[in-house]
Specification:
heterodimer, A: 121 residues, mainly alpha, B: 173 residues
Amino acid sequence: MIALTILYILLAVSIIFNGLGVIGLHRFPDVYTRLHAATKCTTFGTIFMTFTIIAYGGVMYYWNPGQDQYLNMVLHTLAALVAILVTNPTGAHALARAAHKIGILPKHAVVDHLAEMEGKK
Amino acid sequence: MNRAKAFVSTFLLSLFVYLFLTLAAGRSMIEGTILWSVEELVLGVSVALIVSAVASDILCRSDNYRMLNPVRWIIMLVYAIPLFIEMVKANLDVAYRVITGNIRPGIVKIKPPLKTDLGITFLANSITLTPGTLTVDVDEENKDLYIHWINVTRKPTKTISGRFTKWIRRFAE
């Protein structure tokens, strides 16, 4: 019963952060701030979703010893977690860099050292 | 000697990945095996041999084999805990900014005290994983990072990278 409650809490956290990511995607003004909302919040939510699956697999493996598909699920979800942690920052960085290279400047920016550095060259 | 080291480290890495992915897959069908069946082990070793013969030149380009030290890998795993704590704090902050719309964006330049490529890569990825900060560009000569920051305040180097560099220096430098 406690295990199920923990599972539901983890799932709720994941859905809340994914929802916040969607709201931020609509509310923020330009591509960079939207990248913050769209990639970071959803990644955090997705990390909690993988935690949910890992906890579920662990609990089921503890309750049904010998049923190795649960252990297998936990390990493959760990591999997916590592893949998320590596690919998400890479993709966000690639999008932001491409946006800056084609000349989209951040809106309402108080400071832009990158444009200053490129302007000097 | 260096080629042998590259071969062995690529072999161990690919064998580890293979065994990790096939751990406990279908054990219940075969009696008397522990975690992997013998066929699985043989296939894993041969696949790892092929991979290391083909890809060891591509994977191990550097001449420095400091990452073979297992202590560095353990510290790298422990580093997930402070990174996760920072992610929680920054996520709550960005959640607050999503709801109130109170942002002060800008691209700042930081000068992290790291020298190696691996350390810079880890720092840039950690910064991007933390909500509110996003690595836009890297100056490869000076190892400077250009960070899009959702709430610009003073002392960007200390505020953004200070919490990560002391950990990253322990395993990547």
